[in-house]
Specification:
Elements: H1 15-28, E1 35-39, E2 47-50, H2 54-65
Antiparallel strand pairs: 1-2
Length: 66
């Protein structure tokens, strides 16, 4: 499953990546420290990991995907 996240931060010095991680944390209702970048630090496409109860995270993802 893929979730599209758009941020206004520019891709300079990791600002866009940080903004994506903050936005994902907010969307899933978890602390920023529960979201980590798996791959894509310098790419438009990023893979992140969200730590938490799997059922809760999966349910929230399904809600976000509509």
């Amino acid at each position: 499953m893929a979730l599209v996240v758009a941020v206004g931060a520019r891709a300079v010095e990791g600002r866009a990546t940080k903004a994506v991680l903050v936005a994902v944390a907010a969307a899933f209702g978890v602390r920023r420290s529960a979201v980590s970048l798996v791959s894509g630090a310098t790419s438009r496409d990023k893979v992140v990991d969200v730590e938490g109860a799997e059922g809760v995270i999966r349910e929230r993802l399904e809600q976000l995907l509509g």
